[in-house]
Structure formats: C-alpha cells, structure tokens
Design brief:
The protein has 176 residues and is an alpha/beta fold. The chain has 6 helices and 5 strands, in the order E-H-E-H-E-H-E-H-E-H-H. It has a 5-stranded parallel sheet, with helices on both faces.
Length: 176
C-alpha cells in the first residue's frame, strides 16, 4: 500500500485528502506545518508528498528543498491557491513532480498521484537492475564439478588476484 504524506496548513484540506486517499487504498499521514511535515517524512518515508506552497512556519519551496536533500528521488506534488506562472515554474525547477491549483480537482489529483507513483516504481526497478550485475557474476554461482571445471576454478582464483585481462572463448551456447 503506497504511503502519501499531505502537508497543508488548512486542516479541512488535510482531513478531506486523508479521507479520500484512504478510501482509494493509500496509507496517509498529514501535517499542518512544514516542520511537522519534515519530521513526518523522516518517520514514515512516504512514496509521495502532497505539499502546499504557503505554510505558516516554513515556505513550501524550502520544505521541497529539504525533502529533496533527504531523498533526491522523492515525488512531490505541490498545491496552491495562487495561480501565477512564476510560482509554477519555481516549483517545477525546484524538483516538484507536478503542480496543482486549489481547489483541487480530484481527477487531476488522481492522475498526478498515479503518474508520480509509477515514476517512483520505475526508478526503484531501475535501481534494482543497476545493482544486479555485481551480484550476478560470482565465482560461487558457477555450476560444474568435472575435472575441466576444477581447473577453471583454480585459474579464476589465480587470475582474480591480478589485474590481467582475460579472453574467454568457446562454442556458442556453452555458458561462457
């Protein structure tokens, strides 16, 4: 179940989004200030943050910057009642995944959430794939007990201690 953190100083928006998103199957945590939101982010490690730009203690852009310092891949959807292009550009340049104007359109929010969570999922898959090659090629993973394979294991053991380049040859399909 994906976790969503909502940071908005308007209690009614937090409660409405909490109710709606919970019904949609998300685990939701809300915060009414930037400081409370940053603490909740560290505690819950959400998959997505919905962040208001205007907060009573810390500017939403500062919160966005702090969130990205904590996790550079965090997906943040910024929301605001102010409709100016400069704010939108600043949010996107600051690393926001999307930007939605209040009053929040549920369909627009749903689409933004789905896209953000899909992007997060893809990043995690890519990170997993990038980690696999180092795990994939261990000597202990080689199967074989014949005399020839024992000789190969000895050779691999000797060669692995040096910076020697090795050319492995053999017929196609033999598992070189």
């Amino acid at each position: 179940m994906p976790k969503i953190l909502v940071i908005d100083d308007d209690r009614s928006i937090c409660e409405t989004l909490d109710l709606y998103l919970t019904e949609e199957g998300y685990e939701v945590k809300t915060a009414l200030t930037g400081t409370e939101g940053l603490n909740a982010f560290v505690e819950t490690v959400p998959d997505l943050v919905i962040l208001d730009i205007r907060l009573p203690d810390i500017d939403g852009f500062t919160v966005l910057e702090d969130l990205r310092e904590e996790d550079e891949n965090v997906k943040v959807i910024m929301i605001t009642a102010f409709h100016d292009m400069e704010t939108t550009i600043k949010a996107m340049k600051g690393g926001a995944f999307d930007y939605i104007h209040k009053p929040v359109n549920v369909d627009e929010l749903d689409m933004a959430i789905r896209k953000a969570l899909k992007a997060r999922e893809m990043e995690r898959k890519i990170d997993g794939l990038l980690m696999e090659p180092s795990r994939q090629f261990k000597v202990g993973d080689i199967i074989g007990t014949g005399r020839e394979m024992r000789e190969i294991f000895k050779t691999v053991g000797v060669v692995s201690q040096s910076r020697t380049t090795v050319l492995i040859q053999g017929e196609s399909g033999t598992g070189k």
